[in-house]
Amino acid sequence: MPDAATSPSALSRQRRAWIVLSALAALALAVLLLALLTGSVKITLSELWTGWRGGNDTALAIIRDLRLPRALAAFACGGLLALAGAMMQLLLRNPLADPYVLGVSGGAAVGALLSWLIVMPWLQTPLAVFGALLSALLVWFGARRRNDVAQEIEAAQGTAPRLLLTGVVVAAGWGALIVLLLSLAPDAQLRSALTWLMGDLSGAAMPWTAWIVLALTLALIWPQARNLNQLAFGSIHAEALGVPLKRTQAWLYGLAALATAAAVVTAGCLSFVGLIVPHALRLLFGNDQRVLLPACVLGGGAFLTLADTAARTWVAPQVLPTGVLTALIGVPVFLFLLRRA
Amino acid sequence: MSATVLRVRELTVQRGKRILCEALSFDVQPSDCWVIIGQNGAGKSTLLLTLAGLLPSARDNIEGNINYSEKPLSSLSALERARYRAFLASQQSDAFSATVFDAVLAGRHPHLARNLWQWESADDVAATEAALMSLKLEALTTRDVRTLSAGERQRVALAATLAQAPSLYLLDEPASHLDPAQQIEALDTVLAHARQQRAAVVMALHELHLATRYADHVILLGNKNTRAQTGTAAEMLTAENLSTLFGANMATLEGNGLKSFVPDRSQASGIGNQRSEQTQGG
Fold first, then answer.
1. Domain for residue A191, yes or no?
2. How is domain B6-238 classified at the CATH fold level?
3. Does any CB of chain B come closer than 8 Å to the CB of residue A282?
């Protein structure tokens, strides 16, 4: 794929970055608009316009109360998950890392379910964050060989199977805990809990938490993008080039867990978004984190909003859980990546 | 007048219960080329990591002083160290795809402003292109590093250290994976660059013929029973010293102004222990 990504000129790189990001932003806006206009009640652009200016009330109500919160929730969750995926891939130096595959979403889900069972909804976000952090910690220590530099140089390539095994085991553990919690839950709430676990955006109110966390995460990690570029070449390489290794890894770890938890609290365990989106964007635009991180937010948001719109309209009036769609796309992509790894 | 590039005083590195070097002291001057020689597992990589300030101190006991240009290593930040010394690891591993150009451009990272928003300038691009040229990598500029052969990848890593333009090159097996002609070409290039900038090179080498060719000073890193020795290449690189170091009788090969050492015939392991001493100039 010899394209502009390989162009040596630094100036053109910078210009290219802004072109890519502007194009993705335009795409994201178009997808959001599409999500507002499609559904069981078709609304045209002109109706949206007159509704906006105080005309047609029903159209405005549908958009304002139903479609807008849902589309914004989908966008924020997609951005959060893609960003979390990109950060975990850098942290673990493995393009197969993903919050869902490695059980980080599972940890957050257990935390969220727990708060729901003990009827303390205000604990939902903190418990989900705690679950995600714990999960990421388990994967981190399970997948890494002991933090031995010389050993790391020798063994840098052999970590993929170990990482995936650790992730699978951690995810299985959370899965068991989830079943345990669900079997304790009152029957009336079981169905909604199950849909939520599959990844579901139907219940979403205005997703303030998700948007605030998304903005915060991007604002904190984007300025470190050039350091993260070095990390992609290996941790010793990065440290030798002046990257404060421990601090950078701690940021990645904390922010990836926070972003995952915010997405899970908003919309349950949406699978594979963190895998598909960074991978596709990396193929298209290269692995410069200065471009990739914001591109993940825009591309992930657009992807999930599109997937959610499809889930609403595909077999209408039935509404599919959004997570079913992302999983149906994600599984083949993951298998393809695993073959290439 | 120029300051000592690297001053090491009473350096003891302990890994677990193993002492890798004890009370090691030496001074590396501008344009020097120091070569570290030792058996497998003697701690050449660890010593280089220590000199680069990259060894996590938690599990390793490091005592003694390391100074870069009279400044204690411990007083320098990661970025200050990166502007002063380049470190080439003995192996490169690429988890993600990147172009050869980007892999070499990475060497410019410490020289960009602290502001992480800053993009590489025309100067950085020029330094990268020069480094690619000097290691004859122009044809590979747009290739993905993961598709390179080990030897090509090694030259890319060397080019990145050149782009970094340090005062001190710390190279772990810079000649590994390279074919004989490339070894000479690559090391000639790196050393010429270093000398031109009055930078110093400290490298671990396996091939003794490369050590005699390039070293002006040598560190013999012994195993458990022998202490590390330092000195000029002429003093250190003798059949006697190397025999002790490697625990095998080493014979000298000389010819065409070149010199190397190989285990002599009496060393033949096991069957048919030949006594014939036929080693001579080649």
1. yes
2. Rossmann fold (3.40.50)
3. yes
